[in-house]
Amino acid sequence: MFGDDLLPGSEQVVVRGAAGEDVVAGTPSVTGGTLEVPLDLSAPGPHLVTYRVLSGDGHAVVGELSFDVVGTGAPAVAVTPAVAEASGGPLGSPIWWLAGAVGAVGAVALLRRGLAPPRR
What we know:
Elements lengths: L11 E5 L12 E3 L2 E3 L8 E10 L5 E10 L7 E4 L12 H23 L5
Antiparallel strand pairs: 1-4, 2-3, 4-5, 5-6
C-alpha cells in the first residue's frame, strides 16, 4: 500500500527470481493506494521487485525491494526491504506497505501450492 491513491494503468512492476527469471504471474492491478501483483513463487531464493507508479497527483514513485522465498512449498516468505528511492521525496511508509503486500501474496501462493495435491 502507498500513502496516496495511485493512477490505474501507470504501474510498472518487474519481479525477478534467484535465476533472474520473471516471476510475475498475471496483470498487476491498482485499487486506491494498493498495488497487487500475482506472483509465481515456486522457486526458493532471493527475489527482487522494482516498480514505478504514479500517485494521484501525478508524481512518480520509484523503488525496489527484495525478499526471500524459503523452502519449496512451505508457507513461509521472509520480506526484507532493499534500497528504495522516489522522485519528489523519500518513500517512507510505501515501501513497507509494498513489502507487506508482496509477502502476503507470496504466502498465499505458497499456501495454495502446499495444499494442492502432488502433480504426477
